[in-house]
Amino acid sequence: MAELHKLLGKAQSELTYAPDNAWVMPMQRIGIEIECEGVVSERTQTSPELETFRHSTMLWSDKSDNSLRDGGREFVTSGSGLFGKDLSKAIEVFLVAAKKNGWHGSDRTGIHIHIDVAEMDTRTNFYFLCMLYAYFERQLFAFAGHAREGSIYCLPWHKAQRILSTIALVCGAKANRKDKTLIQRLKEVQEREKYSAVNLGTLGTYGTLEFRHLGTELNTDKLSTWINLLMCLKKFAKDSKCETTHEFLNYLISTPHYEVVEDVFLQYAGIINLPMFFEIPTKKLLYDMVFLHSKALETEIKWSPEQGLMAKDSPFNLFLTRQTKKGAT
C-alpha cells in the first residue's frame, strides 16, 4: 500500500494534535518567532545546514529580516499556531538544530510569542488579561532579562501609555463587520507600535497578542517556562469570575501581592520576583486602563486618573486608606 504523501512527493505531516500536560493550557495555540544570526551566507542567503533543516521538518518556516545581520533569519512556527505535543516537539526540533549549526542570538535578536486570544470577551476577560500584564510587567521583564526592557524593539507599557487607548478601542468596539474603524486602527498600530513589549497590532492580523520580551536564548527550560507564564496570565483572566474591570481592579489592589502571584502563576509562582510594595507607576497604569475602558464602553464613572483620583470614594484613595490602617496596626 502506497501512502498518498509518498505518491505526491510530499512530506508526511508531523502534527499529532495531541494535548500535552507539560503546558498550563494543553490545547492553547501558540505561535513562535525566533530570530537568529549566523544562519546563512550573506552573499548567497542560504547554507547547507539551513537547507537540511528545511527538509527535516514542516513545523517551521524561515524568512529574511532586514533588522538582522551576520546572515540572520527569522524562524516561524507553521500554520496558525501549535499546541500540546506539537508545540513541545517544535521547540525541541528547533533548539537542537540551532545549537548543532551554531545559530545564535545578539542584541538585535529576540523570541516573540504569539498567544491566541480571539475567543476572549473584549469587555471582560481580554481586558483582564491586559490588566494582569500591566500588573506583572516588571516581574515578567525581570524573568526575561532586564536588557530587553531597555531595547528599542521591546518598549514597556509603562513607558508607552499611548498603547492604552488602543486597548480601550478594542474593548469598546461593537461586533459589526461593516465597521472598519477597529480593523483600520489595528493596522495603524501594527506599523506605529509594533515594537511595544506586548504588540496589539497582531490582533487584526492573527487574533493574537505578541509578547516580545525574550532575547534569543537557546534554552529549552527558559522558553517553555516563559510560554507557561503567559498561559498562566491568560488562564487566570479567562477563568475570572469578575464581571467588570472595576471589580478586577479591586481584586488586584486589595489582595496581598504574594497571593495574586500564587493565584495567577500556580506552580510557577516561585520564579516571579516579589516586590515589597505595589509600585505607584503600576497603579497609575491600571487606573488609566480602567478609566479608558469605562470611557470606551460609555459607562458612567465617578473618577479618573486625571480628575478626582484622590476623591474620598475613589478606588485609589480607598486603597491608600487601607494601606495606612495596616501600617498603623
In short:
The chain is an alpha+beta fold and 329 residues long. 46% of the residues lie in helices and 10% in strands.
Main attributes?
globular, six-stranded antiparallel sheet
What does this structure look like?
Helices cover 46% and strands 10% of the residues. The protein has a six-stranded antiparallel beta sheet with strand order 2-3-1-4-6-5. The chain has 13 helices and six strands.
Number of H/I helices: 13
Quote the distance from N terminus to C terminus.
80 Å
Report the mean per-residue pLDDT as an integer.
81
SSE class: alpha+beta
The coarse silhouette is globular
Number of strands: 6
Uncertain residue ranges: 299-320
What pattern of helices and strands is seen along the backbone? HEHEEHEHHHHEHEHHHHH
The amount of helix comes to 40-55%
Biggest β-sheet, characterized? Answer: 6 strands, antiparallel
**How much of the residues is beta strand, in percent?**
5-15%
Radius of gyration from CA coordinates: 22 Å
Order of strands across the main sheet: 2-3-1-4-6-5
Secondary structure topology:
Layout lengths: L3 H4 L22 E7 L11 H9 L3 E4 L9 E5 L6 H18 L8 E7 L8 H20 L1 H4 L13 H10 L8 H12 L5 E2 L2 H5 L1 E8 L4 H20 L5 H10 L2 H9 L14 H17 L18 H14 L1
Antiparallel strand pairs: 1-3, 1-4, 2-3, 4-6, 5-6
Helix pairs in contact: 4-9, 4-10, 4-12, 6-7, 6-12, 10-12
